[in-house]
Design brief:
Blueprint (H helix, E strand, L loop, with lengths): L5 E10 L2 E11 L3 H13 L7 E8 L5 E5 L3 E3 L5 H14 L4 H13 L12 E4 L19 E3 L1 H13 L5 H14 L4 E7 L8 E5 L3 E5 L11 E6 L6 H10 L1 E6 L9 H13 L1
Parallel strand pairs: 4-12, 5-10, 6-11, 7-12
Antiparallel strand pairs: 1-2, 1-3, 8-9, 8-11, 9-10
This protein binds coenzyme A and adenosine monophosphate (AMP).
Length: 277
């Protein structure tokens, strides 16, 4: 993939005020046409009939592209949302997020983090120590954008994830988003679960812990979901952080490790042993 010839392609589909789906790619000029078609097919697939599909194509020629290796991935075998949230909170603490901030984020996402108590259009930014909300607009939040896998890394991650039974496109896209977010200046960790009522899995991600998945962070049928970006506030310029999340182009050019599901206790014991070594 030639860096000078790359384009950011972003699709969003909506029905009235309701966001239905969104996805993005970074591709070479020669692949723009097919990628636009693929993204439109995605917007109209699975019986969806959006009122509006917006596709934006931007040349990235003068933009510096950051090349990253994906976070390592592991799944903790939690049986339900309650144990999932408790384990997620413990992982967040391992990434330097206080118990107070972790618990505030879980409460916000679980009850509707937007100013009006609904789902936000992006992520909260929270002080990793106090849990204070720092995003400029609590209805919108902040959206990470302009990231993708290189062709080679995409092929490799598909194989690695399929090898441990993870074939959902969402996992690959969330891992790319989380890898970009984890490398943001001042970022301590991210917590996410979807607002899709049929998708109960979620994750905690950070440079410290890697991408830690939980099959359950909410109950089936629950329409609440969201994201929290926890930051180390001292020395972090929030405007630069938001600028990085929204506009810096990131290509994930290699994969990390992808481990099969393990018991949470085993995961925490291994981390303690690792820290002692
Ligand atoms: N929820 C609700 N509304 C959304 C939305 C979302 N997730 N994403 C976009 N919109 C709507 C909003 O009205 C937004 O206006 P706002 O900025 O006032 O909130 C408007 O669309 C324009 O959004 P913008 O981000 O400027 O559009 P874009 O075309 O540049 O990019 C996306 C749209 C959806 C591709 C991008 O925002 C995104 O989320 N990329 C990541 C996709 C991904 O891989 N996610 C991982 C899934 S696990
Ligand atoms: P999703 O994983 O797409 O179901 O999104 C889960 C939640 O994350 C949404 O309800 C939004 O609050 C938030 N969100 C969606 N897209 C983004 C993004 N690109 N960056 C940050 N947060 C997002």
């Amino acid at each position: 993939m030639q860096e000078k010839n790359l384009y950011s392609i972003r699709m969003r589909a909506s029905s009235g005020d309701r966001h239905i789906s969104g996805a993005e790619r970074i591709v070479a000029f020669g692949n723009v046409d097919t990628t636009v078609r693929d993204l439109i097919a995605r917007a109209t697939g699975k019986g969806c009939r959006p009122d509006r599909i917006m596709v934006t194509v931007d040349h990235l020629m003068d933009t510096a592209i950051q090349r990253l290796t994906a976070l390592d991935l592991i799944t903790l075998a939690v049986p339900d949302a309650e144990s999932g949230r408790s384990a997620a909170s413990q992982v967040l603490r391992g990434a330097g997020v206080s118990a107070q901030a972790a618990s505030a984020a879980i409460k916000y996402i679980g009850t509707g983090a937007s100013a009006r108590g609904g789902t936000m259009r992006g992520a909260m930014i929270m002080d990793a120590r106090t849990g204070e909300r720092l995003e400029p607009d609590a209805e919108r939040g902040v959206r990470a954008s302009r990231f993708d896998w290189s062709d080679e890394a995409a092929e490799k991650i598909r194989c690695l994830l399929a090898g441990i039974g993870l074939t959902h496109l969402r996992t690959i896209e969330a891992l790319a988003l989380a890898t970009k977010v984890a490398h943001a200046p001042g970022m301590a960790a991210e917590l996410c679960w979807s607002d899709d009522p049929d998708y109960t899995a979620g994750y905690v991600a950070s440079l410290e812990t890697g991408y830690v998945r939980f099959p359950f962070l909410k109950e089936q049928g629950d329409e609440k979901g969201g994201r929290a970006f926890f930051i180390n506030r001292d020395g972090t310029n929030i405007d630069s952080l938001i600028e990085y999340l929204q506009t810096t182009a990131v290509l994930i050019v290699d994969t990390g490790t992808c481990k099969p599901e393990i018991d949470p206790e085993e995961f925490f014991e291994e981390r303690v042993k690792g820290q002692g070594a």
